[in-house]
Write the structure tokens for this entry.
Amino acid sequence: MRLEHHHQPLLPIHHFWRRMAAYAAVALGLVAISLGIGMVGYHSIGGLPWVDSLLNAAMILTGMGPVDPMRNTAAKLFASGYAIFSGVAFLTIVGILLAPVVHRFLHHFHLEMEDEGRP
């Protein structure tokens, strides 16, 4: 998923929305994978039912915090590792979603500077 070079013209808006959809699909895929990791861990290691595993994984992934307490050492270690992973995953997913918007803004700003004769 490449972005246009600063010497290329600004991408037409319909292509931009197609790019946004592609980036959103990647972000959604990462959310699904991250939720899946959390659900499997909370279910198999934490001994929670699937619905509670989904709830805990979703709450941790979005930064809200855990719902159910972990009862054994392995579950607590998993929950700690998943919380750290989730923080990084959440920031990465937001970065992926915002990348085309930020790139378009900076690209537009750069083109305006070139039109004014600035380097």
About this structure: Residues 24-115 form a domain with the Helix Hairpins fold (CATH 1.10.287.70). The chain has three helices and no strands.
